[in-house]
Design a protein that fits this description.
alpha+beta; binds flavin-adenine dinucleotide; single chain; 4-stranded mixed sheet; 10 strands; 15% strand; 4-stranded antiparallel sheet
Length: 383
């Protein structure tokens, strides 16, 4: 009744290839990556060989120049298998678009082909120890000195922070102007003065590296400015809807996957002489979960369609992210409950999915900030 209508036969062939890649090159290693707190470099290179990185990057810069549907397919196939370790989406769907949209030709040629091949990994550094939601108050500075920018400050919670080869750093180039003083600057991780801090130990996303990053008077060429000086905040706001849409896409798939695991589990698990699925409570919960999954699937597919048409607004993306990630958290909890004690065991997919889900209500803008954006659009900022 609610069959998806977004994808054609070519998309489905690509989906099969992505699914095979995940089954062969990701799933068998995921436990080891969780223990290491980071995925192997080999995985990135293989994903590049298979054409699964930066799928929307134009051919002129080494990508296939495909549309966002292909990016959604890669994301969905990783999520279906609970493969949250590889930070491909940050690299492909968040970092690469900044370069495509705003970087100089020189920067694009220097980095995008390598990103497509998995030879260079990208990260984005906005959050600081003292500043997350209130990004305009960031302290990291970039001062122009001759032909260089000199970057100093600290970032934290940065995805791909341990494995990245460069970071797009949000820094104040005019500390007296709030949002209007922010610029984006590409900092290569082999520059003098750049150091990585700890690989932070998280509740979920165990195989994905998340780090503190330190910049001590790091000199980069003036040409490393991504976009226009002082327009960094606007550029962030322009790109955040796609980041938020990817979180919504992830949430929709996760709800469907968790429903499948839970139907299977409750059918085979026996209690009081019958299957757990035979209890009316189980059927009712499964019915609620299915309904949530379908509602979000239909809404998010429509958001994808609008994004392809260039019509997805920041408010639409905020609604998609807020609603789907909060529904996902409720659904993961219900599914875990229906697994009983097994659901709390790390070896079970639902345990990992439950832990991973919590991040999505925080990263990329919290649920409260999403509400601010949506509410402000209706009634303004208030006093
Ligand atoms: C796993 C993970 C990966 C991440 N990856 C990255 C990354 O790659 N790059 C990056 O730059 N950042 C990254 N982040 C950081 C993330 O974007 C921030 O954590 C998020 O924006 C919230 O900022 P904060 O943690 O400083 O919380 P705070 O801003 O300190 O918020 C604390 C609480 O106050 C609430 N609050 C704040 N302002 C308001 C307000 N105006 N109205 C109502 N409530 C408010 C928040 O909603 C929250 O509940 C990541 C975070 C996580 C957990």
């Amino acid at each position: 009744m609610f069959a998806r209508t977004l994808f054609n036969a070519e998309h489905e062939m690509f989906r099969d290839a992505a699914a095979r890649f995940v089954a062969e090159h990701v799933v068998p290693h995921h436990d080891a990556w969780e223990k290491a707190g980071v995925v192997s470099r080999e995985m990135w290179l293989r994903a590049g060989e298979q054409g699964l990185l930066c799928v929307t990057v134009p051919e002129a810069y080494g990508g296939p120049g495909a549309d966002f549907l292909y990016a959604a397919i890669v994301l969905e196939e990783f999520v279906k298998k609970n493969a949250s370790g590889p930070g491909l989406s940050v690299h492909s769907d968040i970092v690469a678009p900044y370069l495509v949209a705003y970087a100089s030709e020189e920067l694009k040629q220097a980095w995008l082909p390598k990103m497509c091949r998995g030879e260079a990994i990208g990260a984005i550094g906005m959050t600081e120890p003292g500043v997350g939601s209130d990004l305009q108050s960031m302290r990291t500075r970039a001062v122009r000195d001759g032909d260089d920018w000199v970057v100093s400050g600290q970032k934290t919670f940065i995805s791909n922070g341990q494995c990245c080869d460069f970071v797009i750093v949000a820094a104040k180039t005019d500390p007296d102007a709030r949002g209007k003083g922010v610029s984006l600057i590409l900092v290569e991780t082999d520059r003098v003065g750049f150091t990585r801090g700890r690989n932070l130990e998280k509740v979920g996303y165990k195989a994905q590296d998340t780090s503190e990053l330190f910049f001590e008077d790091v000199r980069v060429p003036a040409a490393n400015l991504v976009g226009v000086e002082g327009r960094g905040f606007v550029q962030l706001m322009e790109q955040l809807p796609q980041e938020r849409l990817t979180q919504a896409v992830r949430a929709a798939v996760m709800m469907e996957a968790a429903l499948d695991w839970t139907v299977d589990y409750t059918r085979q698990r026996q209690a009081f002489g019958r299957s757990v699925s035979d209890f009316q409570n189980t059927r009712f919960k499964l019915a609620e979960i299915r309904t949530q999954a379908v509602l979000h699937r239909v809404f998010i597919d429509r958001c994808i369609e609008m994004h392809l048409e260039g019509k997805l607004t920041a408010v639409d993306a905020a609604m998609a992210k807020m609603a789907s990630t909060e529904a996902m958290n409720v659904v993961m909890d219900m599914c875990l409950q229906l697994h009983g004690g097994s659901g709390y065991m790390w070896e079970m997919p639902i345990a990992r999915a439950w832990a991973d889900a919590r991040m999505s209500r925080i990263a990329g803008g919290t649920g409260e900030i999403m509400r601010e954006l949506i509410g402000r659009d209706l009634v303004g900022r208030g006093a």
